[in-house]
Design goal:
Layout: H1 2-28, E1 42-46, H2 51-63, E2 68-73, H3 76-86, E3 90-94, H4 100-107, E4 112-115, H5 127-135, E5 138-141, H6 146-153, H7 156-162, E6 165-167, H8 172-191, E7 196-206, H9 213-222, E8 227-231, E9 234-238, E10 245-248, E11 255-260, H10 264-273, E12 277-285, H11 287-299, H12 302-305, H13 308-329, E13 333-341, E14 346-353, H14 356-372, E15 379-381, H15 394-401, E16 407-412, H16 414-417
Parallel strand pairs: 1-2, 1-4, 2-3, 4-5, 5-6, 6-15, 7-12
Antiparallel strand pairs: 7-13, 8-9, 10-11, 11-12, 13-14, 14-16
Helix pairs in contact: 2-14, 4-5, 8-10, 8-14, 8-15, 9-13, 14-15
C-alpha cells in the first residue's frame, strides 16, 4: 500500500506540474507590447527568401506590423512571394552577400541587418558584419559555427569605433538557449552557496525541423569538426556524434537520444559565464537518422565533410528523402539546459515547440526587437553577455521567444518537469 500511495502522490505532482506548464504555454501566446521607438524602423533580412530568414520576417511583421522589412536575397521570384505575404511595409532587394558594394547600398538607411544566409560553417569572412560597421547599422546573425562566431568577435574594436551594436549566434539555438543559460547562472549565484560546476546543452529536432537543406548542410559540416568541450576548466576534443545520452525533454517530447556536436555556445558560455564544465549534444528523429549521422562520420573522411561544395552535393542527394521523411516525422524542437552547482543546487530550463520553422523565426525576431529597443551596447557580443542582451531585457526576450511553445520552464529542479521524475522529497515548490 505504501508503494501505491507513493505512486499516487508522485502522479498527482506530475499532473499539477503539467497543468502549470500548459497554463504557462497559453500565457506565452500573449504578445508583449513593442516599444514605440521600434515602430517604423527598417530591418534588412539577408537570406529572407530562405526558411529561417522568411520565418523571421513573418514573425517580425506580426510582432510589429509597422516595421519596414526588406527581404534581401538572390531569388527575385521567391522574394516577391515573401513580400506578398508580409504586406505593404515589405519590399525585396536583390543582394549577394559577397557583393560588399550592394550590401552597403542596401544598409545605408537601415536600422538593423539580420544575417540569416547560412550555412556559416567553413565561411572565410564576415562581409556582412563589415558592411554593417561601414554603414553604422546594427547587426545580428544566426550563426551556429564556433569559428565564425570567434571571427565576428574579432571585430569588437571596429564596432566600438563605429558605435554600433552587434550580436553573433542569436536565434533559437544558439541564441535563446544562451539567454536561458545566463539566467540559470544568474539565479544560481543568488540562490546557491556552492560553486558553478557544470552546464550542459541538449537539443532535439524532429527531422530537419522544416528548415530544409540549410540545416542539413550544417549538420553534415559539423560532422567534420572535432567537438570542443570543457571539463573542469580544461579544453578537450571529442569525436562528433559520440557520447550518446538519453535525455528527458519533458512534456510533449519525452526522452530522446542526443550526441556530442561542436557548437559555439559551449565556448562562449564557458568563457562568459565562467562555468568550468560545458558541453552540447543534439539528436533527431526518426532514430535511424542518428545512425546515419554516425555512419557518415565513420565512412567519410573529415576532408570531405569540411568541403562545403561536396557537402552541398550530398545535401542535394539526400534532400528529397529527408523531405519525404519530414512529412511524417514532423518538426518539433526542444532545448534543455542543465546547470549543476557544488552544493547540489541543480536547475534546468526547457523550451519546446511543435514547429521549429516557426519557432526559430519568433526567437530571432525577439532578438531583433530587443536590439531595436536599445538593450545592446556598441561592440560585438554573445547573447549571454549583459552588453548583448541586458539583464533587465532578458525576461521580455524570453517571453516573446516562447510564444506558442508547448512547454517553457526555467529554473526548476529536474524532477519537477521531467516525464519520469528521478528525485522525490519535500520542498517541491522551491
Amino acid at each position: 500500500m505504501a508503494s501505491l500511495g507513493m505512486y499516487s502522490w508522485t502522479t498527482g505532482i506530475k499532473k499539477r506540474v503539467f497543468v502549470r506548464a500548459a497554463n504557462l504555454a497559453k500565457e506565452n501566446e500573449k504578445r508583449v507590447e513593442v516599444a514605440e521607438k521600434v515602430r517604423n524602423s527598417k530591418a534588412v533580412i539577408l537570406g529572407g527568401t530562405g526558411r529561417v530568414g522568411g520565418s523571421t520576417a513573418i514573425a517580425l511583421s506580426k510582432l510589429c506590423p509597422d516595421l519596414n522589412i526588406v527581404i534581401a536575397g538572390r531569388n527575385r521570384e521567391k522574394g516577391a512571394a515573401m513580400v506578398s505575404k508580409l504586406g505593404k511595409n515589405a519590399e525585396f532587394a536583390e543582394v549577394n552577400i559577397d557583393d560588399r558594394e550592394a550590401l552597403e547600398a542596401n544598409l545605408t538607411d537601415a536600422d538593423i541587418v539580420v544575417h540569416a544566409a547560412g550555412p556559416f560553417q567553413q565561411s572565410e569572412n564576415c562581409k556582412v558584419l563589415e558592411a554593417a560597421i561601414g554603414t553604422k547599422t546594427a547587426y545580428l546573425d544566426i550563426c551556429d559555427d564556433t569559428s565564425y562566431a570567434t571571427r565576428a568577435k574579432s571585430y569588437m574594436n571596429m564596432a566600438l569605433e563605429a558605435n554600433i551594436p552587434a550580436i553573433t549566434t542569436a536565434g533559437i539555438y544558439p541564441g535563446v538557449s544562451n539567454v536561458m543559460a545566463a539566467e540559470l547562472v544568474r539565479t544560481a549565484k543568488l540562490e546557491s552557496e556552492g560553486e558553478l560546476e557544470r552546464l550542459r546543452f541538449y537539443y532535439y529536432t524532429a527531422g530537419t525541423g522544416g528548415a530544409g537543406p540549410t540545416i542539413l548542410a550544417t549538420s553534415f559540416l559539423l560532422l567534420g569538426e572535432d567537438v570542443i568541450a570543457y571539463n573542469k576548466g580544461e579544453k578537450i576534443k571529442l569525436t562528433p556524434y559520440s557520447g550518446m545520452l538519453s535525455i528527458d525533454f519533458g512534456m510533449g517530447i519525452g526522452k530522446k537520444d542526443v550526441y556530442l556536436l561542436n557548437l559555439p555556445e559551449v565556448k562562449s558560455v564557458h568563457e562568459v559565464l565562467g562555468v568550468p564544465t560545458v558541453s552540447a549534444r543534439f539528436g533527431t528523429d526518426p532514430f535511424f537518422w542518428n545512425w546515419g549521422m554516425i555512419a557518415m562520420r565513420n565512412l567519410l573522411p573529415q576532408e570531405f565533410l569540411r568541403d562545403r561544395s561536396k557537402v552541398q552535393q550530398l545535401v542535394q542527394l539526400f534532400d528529397p528523402v529527408v523531405r519525404a521523411v519530414d512529412g511524417t516525422a514532423g518538426e518539433a524542437v526542444s532545448m534543455r539546459v542543465d546547470l549543476e552547482c557544488s552544493d547540489g543546487h541543480n536547475r534546468i530550463g526547457i523550451f519546446s515547440h511543435k514547429r521549429l520553422s516557426r519557432s526559430v523565426g519568433i526567437s530571432t525576431a525577439a532578438f531583433v526587437l530587443a536590439m531595436l529597443e536599445g538593450s545592446t551596447k556598441p561592440g560585438v557580443w554573445f547573447p549571454e553577455e549583459p552588453e548583448g542582451i541586458a539583464v533587465e531585457a532578458r525576461e521580455v526576450l524570453l517571453q516573446r521567444a516562447s510564444e506558442g511553445t508547448i512547454n517553457f520552464i526555467l529554473n526548476k529542479a529536474p524532477w519537477m518537469v521531467e516525464t519520469n521524475p528521478k528525485e522525490l522529497g519535500f520542498g517541491i515548490y522551491s
